[in-house]
Design a protein that fits this description.
The mean pLDDT is about 90. Helices cover about 5% and strands about 40% of the residues. The longest helix has 4 residues. A hairpin with a 2-residue loop joins strand 3 and strand 4. It has about 70 residues and is mainly beta. It contains 1 helix and 5 strands; from the N terminus they run E-E-E-E-E-H. It is globular and about 30 Å long.
Length: about 70
């Protein structure tokens, strides 16, 4: 997974895979998801990212299997 932030447009791009995008769906006016031909999530675009997501406090935590 990769997260890219474009400060000039205040846009965040979260890439989940390198699969080819077959379809983009608008979730709301600021959030879009890209799907591959099988309907799997490829990426998510967040417009006005500073307002929509807490970018300065981004964290990652992997939870162990039980």
């Amino acid at each position: 997974m990769r997260i890219k932030y474009f400060s000039d447009t205040d846009t965040a791009l979260v890439e989940f895979s390198d699969n080819k995008v077959a379809e983009t769906k608008e979730i709301n006016e600021n959030i879009y998801i890209d799907l591959d031909a099988s309907g799997n999530l490829v990426a998510m675009t967040i417009e006005h990212a500073k307002k929509q997501a807490s970018l300065p406090s981004l964290s990652y935590e992997q939870i162990a299997d039980r």
